[in-house]
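Write out this protein's structure.
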Amino acid sequence: MPERGHAKNLEAFQQLAAYCSGFGTKYNPSRTAMQLPSVQTTISTAAGILNNLHMMRIANSNSRNSRSQEIDAMIEFTPQVIGALEACGAPAQSIKDAKMYYRKMKGRRAAPLPKVKKGAAPADPPEDFNSAAQTGITNQIEHYAGLIAVVEACPGYNPNELELQVTGLKARLDRLIALNKAVQETQVLFHSYVAQRQEIMYKPETGMGSLFNDMQNYVKSVFGAKSIEYKQVKKIRFVTQKYNRKK
């Protein structure tokens, strides 16, 4: 179900609660979960979860884009590192090894790094991958770390440019590792909020979908199937889905 579908279900539940509240003292179920204070708590909790889920989807998408941009910049910058290595008179094998890591960084990807077009709604976070071309996230980190090891092993490598110095190269690697960690953390939180949404909205017997039906049936039992009150709540729709906590 699209994200908007869950929000519409929440709106439907809120509308039903508003009608029940309007019935005054005639709406007086004995079941605690159906009583209006408990219903309002359920609504507030679900709204908070949906908001957290939306924000985490955006945060994960932004983290992925930042990570992708950092990788692209790293690959584009690597020829300058190789040039500095050649200029310092590094051994031929060191230059060969550096170029090998560069080729691995540029290997054709089995799938492009995930990006979100500007203005487009962020999709659910995809799982990270390691492609056959060794351009997956973990591979890229390893390739760049390998390049730094090659450079660091050359005593004559000491350029004046700060970003080309070993400390500058390590700082770039640290940024990539931090960005990758941000992607992983936001992805874990995203899936946690999905599980919470499934629990509160769609769990059999205790979820909002089940409670929604029970509240409608209660109104029917109190006012009658042909009553104006029941006709008002009967037209409200909550679209249920199969409960799956892993969704």
